[in-house]
Design goal:
Distance between the termini: 38 Å
Strand order of the largest sheet: 3-4-5-8-9-10-11-12
CATH superfamily: Aldolase class I
Radius of gyration: 21 Å
Number of domains: 1
Largest sheet: 8 strands, parallel, barrel
CATH class: Alpha Beta
CATH architecture: Alpha-Beta Barrel
Shape: globular
CATH topology: TIM Barrel
Order of helices and strands: EEEHEHEEEHEHHEHEHEHEHHHH
Length: 372
């Protein structure tokens, strides 16, 4: 049986060469005004030639308060778009993978230092800002955010749409909207972080309302032939929090709004979450979304065993397999997975001689036989 992991997969007008996706991974290496740097050309360039079918760039903020740190990418102005052009150009010139971007807002988890600097809350004198959230409930250990009013909600919808338009103009193949890991849109969804008493809070329909409005704005602003998907935290891993049943309901609503896929991650709302981490531990969330909501699901979380990744696809528990940190540890994972599964992964011609059959000397056999 041919390996499903290396079969193509279509999303609207974009056909991925295989089912391997590189997850967005924050690099905290932008300029203080949110512009991409040479690091991004190297980082993304390394991944688009990896043999994967899709690379999704890191969480990219739609306004200054949407950053986690001062090193996070932004796409709220034309200068930031210009800084991303070399990254996109390299991907188009040398990469075999489709290129996506994740649009995000950090919400109440923003205004902190880079991880390697301790990720402490930034003081105003260090460039920090007042964070925003659906209500005034603080992320544990952080300052209380400002609760968004109607004008703030209107502004955010417009900012997400503007970033989506810029992404389309830059030529990105796909957008993933970040509704996970405790950031702004996830904090609207969870009853543990959204204590509003208006139409954007309360019951499940109220808490889903603003994320669905943002999705609609992004979908309308991005070219119709290119896919838009959503990353969710399928569960908060906390009593009384967002759960898989709610995630299926949200996914059904997203499907009606024109969503093309859901990436089923989890957690991030509060540090006291209790997660049992093991290979494939989030696959049941993807399976629930795909089976019960009828949307293609992307599975994530310790799926770097090729046999396990293939099994998930064969059992129809997900349609796509995403790796994040595993790809920075082993950027040629798709090549190795292809060899293990008896398949072929894309590679640039410059690296043809590094393929296993070439390293064994097979490339010289035709010449030797012709010389006899």
């Amino acid at each position: 049986m041919a390996a499903l992991l290396f079969s193509p997969f279509a999303l609207r007008g974009v056909t991925l060469p295989n089912r391997i996706v590189v997850s967005p991974m924050a690099q905290y290496s932008a300029t203080p005004d949110g512009c991409a740097t040479d690091w991004h050309v190297m980082h993304v360039g390394n991944l688009v030639i990896s043999g994967s079918g899709l690379v999704i760039m890191e969480a990219t903020a739609v306004e200054p308060r949407g950053r986690v740190t001062l090193g996070c990418l932004g796409l709220w102005n034309d200068a930031q778009a210009a800084a991303l052009r070399p990254v996109v150009a390299f991907a188009r010139s040398h990469g075999q993978a489709a290129l996506g971007i994740q649009l995000a807002h950090a919400g109440r988890k923003g205004s902190v230092g880079r991880p390697w600097d301790g990720q402490r809350t930034l003081a105003p004198s260090d460039g920090g800002w007042t964070t925003i959230a659906p209500s005034g409930d603080a992320y544990p250990g952080r300052p209380a955010p400002a609760a968004l009013d109607d004008a703030g909600l209107d502004s955010l919808r417009a900012e997400f749409a503007a970033a989506a338009r810029r992404a389309g103009e830059l030529g990105f193949d796909l957008i993933e909207l970040h509704c996970a890991h405790g950031y702004l849109l996830h904090s609207f969804l969870s009853p543990l972080s959204n204590t509003r008493n208006d139409c954007y809070g309360g019951d499940l329909a109220g808490r889903m309302r603003f994320p669905l409005e943002v999705f609609a704005a992004v979908r309308a602003a991005f070219p119709a032939d290119r896919p838009v998907g959503v990353r969710i935290s399928a569960t908060d891993w906390l009593p009384g929090g967002w759960d898989t049943t709610s995630s299926v309901a949200f996914s059904r609503a997203l499907k009606l709004a024109g969503c093309d896929f859901v990436t089923a991650s989890s957690g991030g709302l509060r540090p006291e979450q209790k997660i049992e981490v093991k290979p494939g531990y989030q696959v049941p969330f993807a399976a629930a979304v795909q089976e019960e909501a009828g949307l293609p699901a992307m599975a994530v979380g310790l799926l770097d065993d090729p046999d396990l990744a293939e099994q998930v696809l064969q059992k129809e528990e997900a349609s796509l397999i995403a790796l994040g940190r595993g790809m920075t540890w082993n950027p040629r994972w798709p090549w190795h997975a292809a060899e293990a599964l008896g398949a072929a992964a894309p590679h640039p011609p410059q690296y043809a001689r590094s393929q296993s059959n070439m390293r064994r000397g097979d490339m010289f056999r035709p010449q030797a036989e012709a010389a006899r």
